[in-house]
Design a protein that fits this description.
This protein has 144 residues and is of the alpha/beta class. It is built from three helices and ten strands; from the N terminus they run E-E-H-E-E-E-E-E-H-E-H-E-E.
Length: 144
């Protein structure tokens, strides 16, 4: 009805995704116990995330970089189209609802991924898996 299942006991590394709209009562009870609430929408049984389930979107007043933050972890969303996809999927709030924070707030967050222009590693509690853009090598010339 919903979730993941092992396809074979003898080969338990094969996991299958089972699509469905009916969440088991045990899953709903567990999610409620950790503060995740999903409300019913319409009569088709589909669900919609509530605001408290969304990732926060934050930025500084003096910089255009937008970060998504969940718990103590943040990531820079450097492509506006990527942010748009998060909004469409209801995983992030619309751009006009991005929360403006100060650098002190950033210093409490661990940044995963690239550091945006105008920031340094010192602006964050920690930078994890810092991605440094690598220059694209020129195409090789054929040997004549």
């Amino acid at each position: 009805e919903f979730g993941f299942a092992h396809g074979s006991r003898s080969e338990n590394w094969h996991v299958q995704w089972v699509a469905g709209d009916t969440m088991p009562a045990a899953v709903l009870a567990y999610e409620a116990s950790i503060g995740v609430f999903v409300s019913e929408r319409g009569g088709d049984g589909s669900t919609e995330l509530q605001e408290e389930d969304m990732t926060k979107a934050i930025k500084l007043a003096d910089n255009d970089a937008i970060f998504t933050a969940s718990g103590g972890v943040a990531s820079w969303i450097n492509d506006p189209e990527d942010y748009g996809r998060l909004v469409t999927a209801k995983l992030a709030p619309p751009i006009e609802q991005v929360e403006i924070v100060d650098r002190l707030t950033l210093s409490a967050l661990r940044l995963v991924g690239a550091i945006p222009p105008g920031f340094t590693a010192g602006d964050f509690q920690e930078v994890i898996d810092q991605l440094v853009p690598q220059p694209v090598p020129p195409p090789s010339q054929p040997v004549v």
